[in-house]
Design brief:
The complex is a heterodimer of chains A (277) and B (864). Chain A is mainly beta and 277 residues long. In chain A, 12% of the residues lie in helices and 47% in strands. Chain A has helices at 22-26, 36-45, 143-146, 180-186, 270-275, and strands spanning 52-62, 67-79, 82-91, 99-105, 113-118, 123-126, 154-165, 168-177, 188-196, 202-209, 214-226, 229-241, 244-257. In chain A, 55% of the residues are buried. A four-stranded antiparallel beta sheet of chain B has the order 2-5-1-6, with helices on both faces. A four-stranded antiparallel beta sheet of chain B has the order 8-9-7-10, sandwiched between helices. In chain B, strands 3-4 form a two-stranded antiparallel ribbon. The chains are: A mainly beta (277), B alpha+beta (864). Chains A and B meet through β1, β5, β10, β11 and β12 of A and α3, β4, α19 and α20 of B.
Amino acid sequence: MPRPTRLPHSSLLLLASLSLALPATASALDPNTEDPRAIAQAVEDRDDGDRGKAKLTLTLKDSSGRSRTRKLSQRSMKFGGGTKTLMFFEAPADVRNTGLLSVDYDDGKKEDDQWLYLPSLHKSTRISTSDKSGSFMGTDITYADMTKKDPDNYDYKLLEKSVKVGGEECWLIESRPRTDKEKKETGYVKTHVWISKSKLMPVQVKAWVKEGKKLKYIKFSSFEQIDGIWVSRRMAVRTVRGKKVESETLFETNQVRFNQADVTETDFSERRLEKGI
Amino acid sequence: MSEYDPNAAPLSPFFKRWAEIVLAARWPFLLGTLALTAFFAYQGVTKRRIDTSIEAFLATESVAFQQLERLRDDFGRDEIFLLLVEGDVFSQDYLKRLKGLHDELSSIDIEIESLGERKSDRDQPRTRVPAPAKATPVEAEPGGDDEFADFGDDGWGDEAGGTVIDEIISLINARQTRWQGGGLHVGGLLDEWPTDAELPQLRAQVLADRTLLGRVVAPGGRHSAILLRTQLMSEQDSNRVYEEVRRIVSAHDAPGFGIQVAGLPALAADINALMLTDLGRLGAVGLVVMILMMALIFRHPLGVAGPVLVVVQAVLWTLGTMATFDVPMTMITNILPVFVVCVGIGDSVHIQSVYRDAMQRGLDTRAAIVHAVGTTGVPVLFTTLTTAVGLLSFNFALVDAIQDLGTFAALGVALALVHSLVFLPAVLSFNRKSLLGLEPLGAGHTSKRHQGDRFDRFLGLCNHVSRARPGKGAHRPRHFTLATAGAITALSIAGASLLSVYHNPLAWMPESFEIKAAFDAVDEHLSGTADVTLMIETHPGKTLKDRDLLLALEKLEQHLLDYRHPTHGAIVGNVISVLDVVRESHRATHGEKPEAYRVPDTERGVSDMVTLFENAGPDQLKRLATIDLTRSIMTVRLLWLDASSYGPLVEYVQQGIDTHVGGRATVGPTGSALNLLTVVDGLLTDLMRSFGTAFIVITLMMIALLRDLRLGMIAMVPNLLPIAAIMGFMGFVGIPIDLNNILLGSIAIGIAVDDTIHFLHQFRSHHSAHGSVEAAIEHAFAHAGRAMMTTSFILVAGFMVFNAASMYNLQRFGLLVGLTLVLALLVDLLFAPALLRTFFGQTPSNDQRVPGESDAPPHEIAAQ
């Protein structure tokens, strides 16, 4: 089932996975299709890689231009029901060795799991993601952006059969939550997603945030094919309120690799989390 | 006024020519004026902006204003709607109703054009100091020239939904940081709805929570609050949100669930509504009063229409100019319409009086107009200049709104002069035969007026007061008059030393207004509606994770909570800061033990608590600290007091900062209490600067006009005395200096000096020609006295119009200015002759020519 209102799954924990197994899936979809569900389905069904490793730089910026940068190393691996991701903060020094383990279930009805390891507590703590519209680690994306959703709760509309964004031929799809629960969980009134026809990846997203009448803009760039998988190595998110930019977050990944032999099941345990980098 | 002797005043060639030009092209002048009036009226109606915010009274250069702007850059709107809900708080019925109200308020969705705009953004074109610089260009939005340009954005568009509410806090969602399911959970208090059995426990828990008690719930459990913060927006849009809040509140208000709305946005909206009401009412009453006055004096439709249309157009042009330049109406500048009407009408009354006298003497309409404009052009120009100088002196004040008043009131008075010299002659040219209230000369000479009426008898009495009597003690009356004036001066100085400054926008409101009761109720049951917000900025390389800094802030927090006001006692309700989330997180991760409610023991511990909280409640953290954790706020909630009363607290806060934080961080206070205090801090300085400037410039003008240093200096004494007297009176009866009556001195001296000019000029012209002081004084009384009384009567009646206002500050302002003008007239009539007799010769026997006085006949200035 399609899940077009969320960002490509696990994309925000591992940007390298913002990708599609292009030859297989793209060719399976008629570029002239006018079925938004089929397009979204194709995006979701793409292979976004396995046993991946990457370095992530996360830069948060507020309306006054103040910024904070965090550097993380991350690895991810698929399992039967979804994807596990392990991240460690490398910088700044005061958060070094803080670790984050997340389990992203394919089943949209199942709550994702996240654990945070804080060295001073000497134990892992579970992160509650009950308020999905809340910000993920102070960034411009929310837990809802990373969570799989039930497509039955959404209406889809193909707004543009063909629109060019940065030279990319795209579909423009609108999705609207059907239920109040879904609206509350995502915090969105509606979402517009521009999807590249050639890569079957989102190129940009505009989301209408209910609270505070904000608009959120997401721009994917630096597309690159790594180990045969299309990857966007840069994602910029901007939250705009009225006429003012409220905040921005820049996600940049490098040293992206897939199918790494040293990424194993044992990496994704609380014990490993507590061991640190 | 109508006693003006046309033969005594020379014609100004310039104004004579000017009148001829106007008459030659009366239709173009008339139609051109009316077309421009229509334009300015359109501008005024379509672009008018009203600013009732507290910072409208702040100086844009002030530290408080700059600090406030930085606060808004980082943390959004600082002013909140505060709803107080009375009832049995810890009952199912109350809580369910509260949830209904909370949910409806949080969903307020109205079209807001100005979403996200700061006041300084809107005022940017006219402020002299640019708003605090931003590191990121704010215009870098989608559609701009950056990586987001592809969106080609139409913004929110016509999409329904969304809210304008930035944050809403009540018992329903009050932050609860607790350990749950193996992790830190930051959620709302009533995320899980309590059963009946759990209500007592909920009550105990809430009433023991220092972050909720006084802020969200009252100690007795009979009141709770909803704190509603919208996004930044214009005052007009904020007023629309208030209307919506009121609508929702009225739907939920019920027995056992009584709701009151307080908070600064609500106060500003109510003031805005009152201001609009007052503007309309005062404008209408002012107009009616002036029509009646003109009808009384001129007794002919044209005689009424001319002066009234002159001032109405002056008002429309002034307001239209303000709107064109996006200068808002404020609680200060809203006196402009009535002010321009009652001060500006003097010029046209003057010209029209001379015109009808000339008509009475047999001149035809055109000749009478040329004569009237030619002989009065210079004097009305001069009196307008002195009034304008008094008003323009407000540009030396620090408060923007006062500067605006000075500039645009001066413009209004100048425009009234322009219309008196353009529009009025054109209107009068349509008069064929009417003498505008005068009787034909033959009959008129036998009229009561020329036989000496009660005006003349009163003027004679005034002249008599200080005149020498025959025999022993001849000079006693003069000495007595001077001694009385001296005594009044001494008393005034003593009284003025008791003057205090005061600023409290809430006190402007009529008692019947609900907002007053709402503020009082919030002060009584909760921690108050005012605040001091401390902006904490860490030093380079440091962040809020610096444990030593947090410990210092903890001491500062306790210092603030310990504060006792010298007269008001405990005014600090609670203190909210980033410390709360650090301590809450620490407690939650340490088994919820009360003793763990503290700053962690290690630097890493602090860092981890911040990281943990940021992951569990990042939006909550953003309310308290910037993204880079280098800037944070500590909000101190206070009872609402008048501005001056916050003085001791602000000093105490600074002491606490110096003692406990020292050099660990930069801490700058702002917030509503500071803003109010900043207004009164600048008031006395503004008063001295503007009044001093007006006094010096007007003195120089008087010297230049009278062409006599001594007479020029003497002329200013009668103008100082009434202002000193009114200040003394205010000091003795306890009327403080506030934003409105600070204007009194400069306005009064600018207006009152006109009478003195006329009186002294009549004196000077006669004295230099004939050398007799007594005769010159007699001449001055005869030729200027009645005009002075008429002018003062019109002005006092005009300023009394302010008593029709709903707002107390306007009523008091009108009364005080009116009283000052009455005093100024009395001083001119009683004290000026005594001064002249002292400095120019005491008795008819020693009358002499003034040394250095030229024999040149008086020119330029004639009496009214």
